[in-house]
Amino acid sequence: MTEGVRLDAADRAVLAARDGANAPPRIVAIIKGGDAVGEVVSQRVTDLSGGGGVADFVSAPAAGPRDQPAASGQPLLLIHDPAAPQWTELGTVPLTDADWLRQVAATKQIGGERPRQTWPLTMSTADALSYAGWRARIALLLPRLEDKNPFVSRLAWGELARAPYAAMDVARSRLDAAKVEGWIDDPALAARRSTYLTLLGFVGGPDDAARLDQRIEAALAAHDSKDLAAMIAADLEITDGAQIDWIETRIFGDRSRTMPEIEAGLLALTVLGDADGAVPRGKIIAAYRKFIKLRPPMAGFVAPQLADWNCWDAAPDYSALVNSNAVTDPASQFAIVNYLKRAAEAGVAVR
Q: With 70 as the cut, is the pLDDT of residue 119 above it?
């Protein structure tokens, strides 16, 4: 669970500082919730910041201004889960960042359409914010990526990593591509490379696309699918889809490609098709239909996306595959049959 998810789920969040090494933390700033500056934290505090430990404290309320200078060192960010009796410490945060944290937390309240999250597929909590909320949050996070404060850095990267792809276009003209390239090349940030490659698609230019081409070729030569989907998506985003024909030939049509490589190519196209932005969905649909012809046994892989986009032009292709028994994989067969069923329900003649 990312720091941003924890902050969103909390009913209370505060910055608190200790008056001494063994003293309980006293609230110096309110991020969200109804606590008061000057209060001493009363419940147990579980440390998730990496320091370890659990402590018990006794309440001693006291009035004070909205933000109060920390007694010693940087204050702790404490959050309270409404379903748990204790506070949780996430890390140390400068008091000067209190208002920034309030702004980040407030983006959850921005109304609007909720995104359908497709990438990364494991981040099911990303739909807690609206598109407008995500765009506002990303704008706040961009300047704090790889911040010198470890908690702020984790928060910024973690939220960017789970953000809906379409909302990331707010990064255009807001971040230097050379800085992002530096993060991508930094071995210490290897775990964050896929996110930064995705980000590069929105902030990069022709030179970055040329370097991405080299990265992709090197990955394909080594049959290395790690970060491949992010690289392909970034390359297509920068070039407005100019390389789609190359993807069709080099990945879908090349019989030496492994399943993970093919899946990476399809994932990149799915994300771009869902966004329907710099690369129009029509181009993605055309690539999908080419994939059906190039890889008949795997044709069902793209059926759910085509159905979700209400694209029924592939119905004749799928009907022919079913009638010829060209698809033997049960999962792929099921996806195709379901597509044809939905097509029929939409009034498309299916033979």
A: no
